[in-house]
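Two folds, back to back.
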Amino acid sequence: MALSKQWTLERIEGILRNLSDQLAPNKIEPLDIIDYIHIAVTKTAERLGLSTLGDYTQATAVSVVTLAAASGIVLATSYSYTTKTVTKAAHGLSVGDTLIYWDDGGYYAIGYVATVPSSSTFTVSQNIGVTVTNFKYLKVTPHSTDTVDISGLGYGVDQIVKLSDSISGLCVPKPTDVLDDLTYPQKQGKIHYYRRGETLVLRKGSDVSAYGTLTLEYVRSPMKVTTSTDYLDIKDKYISLIIDVAKLLVYEAVNAQPPEQLSKSVEERIGAFAQENLKERVAINAGQLPG
């Protein structure tokens, strides 16, 4: 749900359209105006640190998909070194699986599964670099791969705040090389994870028998509104600033010099809001305000 309660896209579009018509009639397309508004919202939210105040923080339950570990040497149907695509029916692999792969001519590489377009194809992170006739691979980790697809979460996951499990508690974020390491010690009572693109790769410690309900808390990106009656995704207190930041983008687009007072006013208000928000963050961290 958008954060503004009063300001729709249409209201701000009209203001910017009047400005663009005064500066350079018919030079800026309507879709460009929408882009400038979204850029203004995104840039302002970032400069004011609004994500740290919880403005764009959401929590949602997520589901784990478990794919069984492969075993033994597998002969693929084909390999394209130009796209790093391997074809093998029912390969059973998932993003993050570590592989050793080679051909009969002595060329080999160590990498991981980068993408899985289908059940019969996957791409690898490292290229052998030559055309091969007998592409073979071996999954070198004995563990199954548990993944969470976060690509469908609304407006994108800009930053993960935390991942928690109803049984084992707070999950532990790890760098990629820790989970890919063959000596990774699964002796802890925690779930470990890392992010690879739009996928979370998870591994349970040996003391964790099963997943409970997983809840992901994340900071989303401000949503781009495209319908005239939609409200902007930023609080109303910042709208006048958003309008002026978007005005500066219009001036830049038509290669015109903005009024000095406009640029000065934008920077002054950003500084004032940033100070105000910093005090609020300190109060939240000190437990004086609800976070």
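---
second:
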Amino acid sequence: MISSNGNVKLCYVENLPFVDKQNQSGYSDQGADNEKEVIQCKLSGAVFSIVPGQFVMKCQNFMTVFDFPRDASQKLVAQYENKKHDLDRKINNIRAAQARLPKKLFDYGQYENLIDDLLELEGKSTDIVYAKVYSDNLVIIYCGQYVKFGKLQVPNKKNSKKKSKNDDLVFVKSDGKYIKDMAVFFSDDTEVVKVIETVNKNWLQLELMDNA
């Protein structure tokens, strides 16, 4: 993502093996409120900032490990399968009706759009956790019906054991967590499609899809 002031912000999420919270081995220390199977994810990113008067950019890296509900992917799979079943049924019904007509009266336009929708649906991935940096320091993470967030800051050099020339960024810890759940709950049939940045700092819009 390139901001209006020319800064470049990159994020990458790597899915690690899922963790059963009833078996705490390998469980991350991010803190958890419920007993759910989770996908352990590694978030890596960097912010490249323009240095005034120079032809170089300042690079600030960040990284953390967090947990994401495993049922986000499972629910997406169920939603997509239901939609594919409905599309298949509609296509077959149209084909059956067309088969009773003379070939001169065939109207393929009735289900061409449905076939395109089906192909698009089959090409969608259900196990991708998306992440993006908004405004100056707000990281949004989402997949399925779930949205998480975290805030970045330059670490206090007095309390930091590591010395970095670039002042690498760290996540702010709040209520014992670096990555927190958004205080909004969506239905199991809801999918967060896109997060849109607005002109107001730290004000975002969510584009949702109802897969019911």
